[in-house]
């Protein structure tokens, strides 16, 4: 990973939490000049991800995500439904118990889950996404298992047959899974085909399966099917979910949390 990519990911991570980035603070944290930070923010502005303001930048909230596999970028997805994703993460974190073994899926929703887990809670965390790793590696109370492989820059995910086999050998209390779409036929899909085998592995390797999706995902279909809604025990979403889908989830016996 290049230094520039590291800076960009750090900046986007801060924006996803605070909604605002201060040039002076970023300069100190990243140990680079303010001019370098300004250049990084200017590039994000050209990509329509941030709005530049005096002394920093604020995250843009676009109206809808790109649906094609080729154009999907997690750094764009981060700015969508941000407040809802934060609420979903808070609720998901409340389901975790001390000494649990958990698996955190790649995605712009799952990324912030570790930030709402008590720092002193002993856990074992399995992950395979750079943005999730960034939020867990410094905590000495958490045992970390990271399955590596080929790095996919668009979703910040590492993927390989060896990584999938590592996950399959593990038994977790709970997996926290993201999805790009939930169809009317209750099929879960993702915008990139290479994610599906890893997602299937974490579902198979966990006792309890928690789906973390904002309401914009319901009624959408992406390119690659990886599971059905009936494979999950819990769904966490926001208040924008339609009454139709709310009833569907409840009627098939899945525990539903609306935040």
Oligomer: single chain
Corresponding CATH architecture of the largest domain? 3-Layer(aba) Sandwich
Main β sheet profile: 7 strands, parallel
* Biggest sheet strand line-up: 6-5-4-9-12-14-15
Overall tally of structural domains: 2
Distance between the termini: 36 Å
Short description:
The chain has 259 residues and is α/β, with parallel strands linked by helices.
Task: Give the tags.
259 residues; alpha/beta; Arc Repressor Mutant, subunit A; Rossmann fold
Please specify the SSE layout and strand pairing.
Blueprint: H1 3-18, E1 20-22, H2 23-30, H3 34-46, E2 50-53, E3 56-59, H4 74-77, H5 82-93, E4 101-104, E5 123-127, H6 130-133, E6 142-146, E7 150-152, E8 157-159, H7 161-168, E9 172-177, E10 181-182, E11 187-190, H8 196-204, E12 206-212, E13 224-228, E14 234-237, H9 243-251, E15 255-258
Parallel strand pairs: 4-5, 4-9, 5-6, 9-12, 12-14, 14-15
Antiparallel strand pairs: 1-3, 2-3, 7-8, 10-11, 11-13
Helix pairs in contact: 1-3, 2-3, 7-8
């Amino acid at each position: 990973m290049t230094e520039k990519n590291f800076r960009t990911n750090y900046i986007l991570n801060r924006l996803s939490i605070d909604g605002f980035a201060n040039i002076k603070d970023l300069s100190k944290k990243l140990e680079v000049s303010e001019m370098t930070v300004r250049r990084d923010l200017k590039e994000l502005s050209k990509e329509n991800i941030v709005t530049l303001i005096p002394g920093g930048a604020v995250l843009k909230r676009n109206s809808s995500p790109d649906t094609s596999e080729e154009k999907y970028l997690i750094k764009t997805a981060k700015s969508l439904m941000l407040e809802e994703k934060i609420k979903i993460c808070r609720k998901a974190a409340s389901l975790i118990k001390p000494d649990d073994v958990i698996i955190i899926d790649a995605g712009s929703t799952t990324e912030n889950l570790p930030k709402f887990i008590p720092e002193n809670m002993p856990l074992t965390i399995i992950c395979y996404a750079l943005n999730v790793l960034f939020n867990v590696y410094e905590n000495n109370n958490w045992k970390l298992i990271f399955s590596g492989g080929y790095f996919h820059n668009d979703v910040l995910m590492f993927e390989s047959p060896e990584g999938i086999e590592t996950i399959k050998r593990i038994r977790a209390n709970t997996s926290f899974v993201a999805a790009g779409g939930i169809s009317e036929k209750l099929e879960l899909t993702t915008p990139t085909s290479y994610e599906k085998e890893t997602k299937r592995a974490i579902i198979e390797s966990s006792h309890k399966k928690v789906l973390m999706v904002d309401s914009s995902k319901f009624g959408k279909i992406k390119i690659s099917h990886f599971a059905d809604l009936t494979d999950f025990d819990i769904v966490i979403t926001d208040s924008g979910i339609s009454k139709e889908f709310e009833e569907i989830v409840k009627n098939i016996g899945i525990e539903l949390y609306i935040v």
